[in-house]
Design a protein that fits this description.
By secondary structure, the chain is of the alpha+beta class. The chain is built from 8 helices and 11 strands. α3 packs antiparallel against α4. It starts with 8 loop residues before the first helix and ends with a helix.
Length: 233
């Protein structure tokens, strides 16, 4: 997601308190006022639990659900007009494309859905003796997670496209490329469940040439029969 102006601290806290049914001071030992990520759908604050665990708290933007719903209604109207006035576009199924987008974006703004994606992805990694050696994903703190708030393990690393910094930290970029490729082959052909938004902001490189995936709002799935067909190509 692109950078966007952050919500004021008061609004971010209000959303957290409304969702988690308690005050920020009671919920956390520390809440960083300024988000370290601010995007179109949500922003992320550093938080410390009373247990001492460092957490990345993803907070959905106020009113974003209603804005998206209004945009989708407008898209449906435009798609229907295109189908009526430009018959040649019917084969592209404009209304169907909007319907697919609606299904995808509504899943993306449901943080319970994202938390399930993270846990499924995390378990796939940890149960694979090969991937567990070099691929990571954050843990989810379900006690602090709702449809609008997502609490994840805070992980610090270098964005995968910051090559100069990687080299300066003695990271082997060839090893990273090979491991990323291996990871994706396994996600697609073994698990049929893969990260569908692998832009540099969602891929961190950690020490010892480890790769960490972030942001699981968009995931891809493949049925076993599709995997078999695809593998034969």
């Amino acid at each position: 997601m692109p950078d966007a102006p952050p919500m004021p601290e008061a609004i971010a806290k209000q959303i957290v308190e409304s969702e988690l049914k308690d005050t920020v001071d009671n919920l956390f030992a520390w809440f960083e006022p300024k988000p370290f990520v601010s995007a179109s759908i949500a922003q992320v604050h550093k938080v410390i639990l009373h247990s001492g665990k460092r957490v990345a708290l993803k907070i959905q933007r106020a009113g974003i659900h209603e804005i998206i719903e209004d945009d989708i209604k407008a898209m449906y109207k435009i798609a229907k007009i295109l189908e009526q006035r430009m018959p040649s576009l019917k084969s592209f199924d404009p209304v169907g494309l909007v319907r697919n987008f609606e299904d995808s974006i509504m899943k993306e703004i449901d943080f319970i859905n994202e938390s399930i994606n993270i846990q499924r992805f995390y378990n796939n990694l940890k149960n694979d003796s090969a991937l567990d050696q070099f691929a990571d994903a954050p843990k989810v703190y379900t006690a602090f997670t709702t449809t609008k708030v997502l609490a994840m393990e805070y992980i610090s690393g270098i964005k995968i496209n910051q090559v100069d910094e990687l080299v300066s930290k003695d990271i082997d970029t060839k090893v990273i490329a090979k491991r990323l490729t291996t990871s994706y082959y396994k996600q697609i052909f073994e698990y049929g469940f893969f990260h569908a938004d692998p832009h540099p902001g969602n891929l961190l490189v950690l020490p010892n040439n480890h790769i960490c995936y972030l942001d699981f709002g968009m995931m891809g799935t493949m049925l076993p029969r599709d995997i078999m067909v695809f593998s034969r190509l």
